[in-house]
User: What shape does this take?
Amino acid sequence: MTDAPRPVTPVSLVAAELTDLCRTLDDDTVGAEAAGRLRRVRDLAAGLDPYLDAMTTPPSSALADLEERTRRHVWSEGPLEQEMLSGHLEGWFLRFLVGMTGARDVLEIGMFTGYSALAMAEELPDGGRVVACEVDETVAGFARTCFAASPVGDRIDVRVGPAADTLARAARAGESFDLVFVDADKPGYARYLDLLLTTDLLRPGGLIAVDNTLMQGEPYCGATTPNGRAIASFNEAVAADPRLEQVLIPLRDGVTLIRRARVRDQPS
Assistant: This one.
């Protein structure tokens, strides 16, 4: 039996805090009305993520198996943990992006055990591919084993090594992509975005999706960790960049969609 994932998104953190708070409520002390309102707020927060999952199309058997393997695996102390999995809701969101953009060539920067890579691969047309960058050889091997159990696993090209080096080699080789999903080391986000924008890696009209841009609420509640500060800085830089248009979506831990700015008529 595996431990339940710890709360790591703004909504799940709010739900956990409210659940703990409601355990300490004494209706006689705080008043029945106030206690009832707090429990209502708790239910609104705690019930949202399970409802979203329940109302989203179920995952394929290969994705469900990959998630289960990731949950069962005992991750040694360090930067890897089961909470890094993209998961059901975000997997379907990424699949929709692939389908709506008509993407044939997808780049993933930061793969972990491969849930998002496999979810996107399942939506690709015949001949499509996902190039997935992963720095850790062990976790890349774990992902390859999971991909081998899927009928579309051969659409995923796993490249092991520092992502910036992999991107530089791909750019020199003339590779380009319709859709890029960034979910790697947070301090590296600015560099990865710069490489995408200053080379031909992102095709004209291409879309970039960046994960964890709400980072447990740190960017707007006060960043207290290196990752939180990196994301806050990245978000501010993207918002101030005239080359870009972006929208930050409060999906799980935040996903920002970015594209090159379209030419508009200037105000008179």
